[in-house]
Structures are given as structure tokens and as C-alpha cells.
Design brief:
By secondary structure, this protein is α+β, with helices and mostly antiparallel strands. Helix content is 24%, strand content 45%. It has 3 helices and 9 strands, in the order E-E-H-H-E-E-E-E-E-H-E-E. The strands form 3 sheets. It has a 4-stranded antiparallel β-sheet. The chain has a 3-stranded antiparallel β-sheet with strand order 7-9-8. It has a two-stranded antiparallel ribbon with strand order 5-6.
Length: 140
Amino acid sequence: MNQTKPMQVQYTIVDGEHEYLDSFVFNAKSGNEREQAFRELAEFYVYDEEDKQEIIASLQSEGIAMIGGRAIKKIFVQEFEPITVIVRGGVIQDIQHIPDGITIRVRDYDIDNLTEEELLKETEPDDEGNPCVVAIWNNQ
């Protein structure tokens, strides 16, 4: 029986003078996950099977492929770890598996026990103007 596991693929798109980081997650069968990632990437960008094979071959041999005038390079494939939030007694104790460059903003609306002074110092309005305590988490 073939088991699958979630894999995350991060890559850089070069469009003229600009570089963009993009990523996606897919379910890979055990073994040759990198090759499967190249196929998933090619499937996303092109429809023609012959073009897909050229892109896959270029990624395998050179680590870069040209797709529609843009370069795809710096491909990193790793097993995907979903972000895990650990809460005990209504309080976040930890957030695990935060990817590099990702910031998580946690809004806590349980502010009934705060004093007026704490409300002024420790809360900020959300997008709809409701007061909340904000905690910022990242992998640092």
C-alpha cells in the first residue's frame, strides 16, 4: 500500500528584475518526493505534456526552468509540518512549526478581566474596531 505524506515546496520565481518566493503543499507518495514536486510544479504552470517533461528535465538537471519568460529556481522540498497551536486553560502556550518568514498574529478577545488601565495599555482594535490583546509569534 502506497502511503502519502504532505510535502511543502518553496521556490523562487524570477520575473525580469523581480524575485518572488512562492510555495505549495501536496501529498507525495513515499520515495522520490523531489521528482514528484517537480511534476506538481510543472502541472501548475503548463498544460502541454511535452512542455511539462522539458520543465521536469530542466529542473532535475540544472535546478532551474524557464516558464513563460520567468525562471523558476531555488526549489526546496521538505516534509510539511502543519502549524500547531497549543492551548491550555484558554491560554496559548506555544505555536510550533512556524515556517521561516511567517508571522502569526493571535487576537485574544477574552478581555473582560482587564482593568481600564490594562485595556488602554494592552489592547488594540481589530479590523472591525473591537478591542483585543494581540500576540505575535514567529520561529525566532
